[in-house]
Design a protein that fits this description.
This protein is 29% helix and 18% strand. It is an alpha/beta fold. The protein has one domain (5-269): TIM Barrel (Alpha-Beta Barrel), CATH 3.20.20.
Length: 271
């Protein structure tokens, strides 16, 4: 995704949250025809081959022929930005199960974007037990920033796109093309904040989009997973056919991004 540069090559900031929806139910939920309990799923909801599209692809008019699902970026390439053509991209994907993804990153300057919900919820995070003093304050702020990035995306989708809780699976795009700290523990707390928001605010979630090398560089460990853990992973650079074995942290691989379909990034479901 590209920054989203376009998924790895073009997405620099899309490499791009959790509880997971049955894919056939996503469209019905989007139309308001299914309650939350009817669309929650614990296994990979994707099948076949789909595509992802975001701000670099605003001139794309129609979904690729043969696509069975769509992933649409609501961010403008960086955390706390919006994709002005996300609405038209959603309309073009009408009839397909749709998931959304958003751009992420961590920098201390993002603190001005922390929202009230995340500022209040940090006390419920449960991931700071070994910290105190300045280190605790830093970690909590990183968590609040990550939580607020997810909140910003969900708010934009609801207020500007008319896509509200929980219409689709959400993905957080984690790429080295965006701002991250050299202190990987702070990056981890930011990722924890994203996973917390996605898990606790009714936004049918999927997990994180990244490549194994980028995830390892940002999180400091390729096997590290968030708290709470994500349900699935969307992995850039792997070739289909693919295994569901975990690649990013401990979450099973649901989708791999490789190649193109109709001039857009191609995404294949793993089984």
């Amino acid at each position: 995704m590209r920054t989203r540069s376009r998924k790895v090559a073009r997405r620099a900031s899309h490499l791009g949250a959790k509880g997971i929806l049955g894919i056939a139910a996503v469209t019905l939920a989007w139309l308001g025809l299914l309650p939350i309990s009817a669309i929650a799923a614990t296994s990979n909801p994707y099948s076949g081959t789909g595509y992802d599209v975001s701000y670099p692809n605003c001139t794309a008019s129609q979904p690729p022929s043969g696509a069975t699902f769509a992933l649409i970026g609501v961010g403008g390439g960086r955390a706390f930005t919006s994709n002005s053509c996300a609405g038209s991209e959603l309309k073009s994907a009408a009839g397909l199960p749709v998931s959304l993804y958003y751009n992420t990153g961590y920098a201390g300057s993002f603190a001005r974007q922390i929202d009230g919900t995340c500022l209040s919820d940090v006390s419920n995070a449960g991931v700071f037990s070994k910290l105190s003093g300045h280190k605790l304050s830093q970690a909590q702020q990183a968590w609040e920033i990550g939580c607020s990035e997810a909140s910003y995306a969900a708010t934009y989708a609801a207020s500007s796109l008319g896509v509200s809780n929980p219409p689709v699976s959400w993905w957080a795009d984690v790429e080295t093309g965006n701002s991250w700290s050299t202190n990987t523990s702070l990056n981890q707390f930011a990722l924890d904040g994203m996973s917390y928001f996605m898990s606790n605010n009714g936004n049918g979630v999927g997990g994180f989009y990244s490549s194994p090398s980028m995830w390892a560089k940002i999180a400091g460990n390729s096997s590290w997973n968030t708290t709470p853990a994500m349900s699935g992973s969307w992995v850039a650079g792997l070739q289909p056919p693919c295994s569901t074995s975990p690649v990013l942290g401990g979450a099973p691989t649901w989708l791999v991004q490789s190649g193109s379909i109709g001039g857009l990034d191609q995404d294949t479901a793993c089984s």
